[in-house]
Write a structure and sequence with these properties.
Blueprint: H1 3-19, H2 26-61, H3 70-113, H4 127-154, H5 165-187, H6 193-202, H7 204-218, H8 227-244
Helix pairs in contact: 1-7, 1-8, 2-3, 3-4, 3-5, 3-8, 4-5, 5-6, 5-7, 5-8, 7-8
Length: 245
């Protein structure tokens, strides 16, 4: 594994950002963009109102001689809740937008290669295939996420270890982003959970680079509204250039 693979993976998100503005893609970008905007805006507003309340409570709860800990605990809490919120909202947005994202991945692949072949039929997917397999994949990803997220969340409440917990969570979230978005182009070719994860492990640094770039984009206000369609398009470009052949 070469460090340059990480940067190459991150570069695919920028490729995706360019692709979604390609003529003919706007219709397939509009619905995921609208869903992402509504979810991130409402989720951010809700989280901020509660985080500010927590900060006020913490300030009143800590004795004066421990007031210096607020500078450590509040940023740690902000960062942890922020990453958890981003991951949760991204999962919900992808669950709702799965059929649209599958269509976007299909159109991006046709744009990049001039063709789209289904492993069995060598034809573009029909309506049934565009709706139900993506939803099944999303449920599988949610289960994969829950089984691993719960033990990681426990790290946040273990003294001393909780200092490293946000960094572990960043790595996990980056991996989940790679899994989340490469699923769309790969499941279009009837590749699902185990096979997708096997492909990602073949190029682990590449996958983490793409996932980390996606995580960073979701944390930038306003720009994060474009994160979901850009990540779908970028993951499709990564599929075409790294695995499809």
């Amino acid at each position: 594994m070469q460090p340059s693979s990480f940067l190459r993976g991150a570069g695919y998100l920028l490729t995706g950002l360019q692709l979604i503005f390609t003529p003919g893609m706007r219709l397939f970008v509009a619905m995921p963009l609208l869903l992402g905007t509504l979810l991130y805006a409402s989720g951010t507003w809700y989280a901020l109102s509660h985080i500010l309340a927590f900060s006020a409570w913490l300030n009143s709860y800590l004795p004066s001689w421990l007031s210096w800990m607020e500078w450590i605990l509040v940023p740690l809490f902000f960062g942890s809740v922020g990453m958890l919120l981003i991951t949760t909202l991204g999962t919900v947005a992808n669950l709702i937008g799965a059929p649209f994202n599958a269509l976007l991945a299909q159109k991006i692949e046709i744009h990049l290669t001039g063709s789209f072949g289904n492993a069995k039929t060598d034809q573009p997917l029909g309506l049934w295939e565009n709706i139900f397999p993506p939803l099944r994949s999303e449920i599988g990803k949610i289960l994969y996420y829950i089984v691993r997220a719960i033990p990681l969340l426990i790290l946040f409440v273990i003294p001393m270890i909780n200092i490293a917990a946000p960094f572990v969570w960043i790595i996990f979230t980056s991996w989940m982003n790679a899994f989340q978005y490469t699923d769309f182009p790969m499941s279009n070719h009837q590749m699902y959970d185990k096979e997708i994860l096997a492909r990602l492990r073949e190029k682990r640094l590449l996958s983490l680079g793409f996932g980390a770039a996606t995580l960073l984009m979701t944390m930038i206000p306003v720009v994060n509204f474009l994160a979901m369609p850009a990540a779908v398009a970028g993951a499709t470009a990564m599929w075409v250039r790294e695995w499809r052949e």
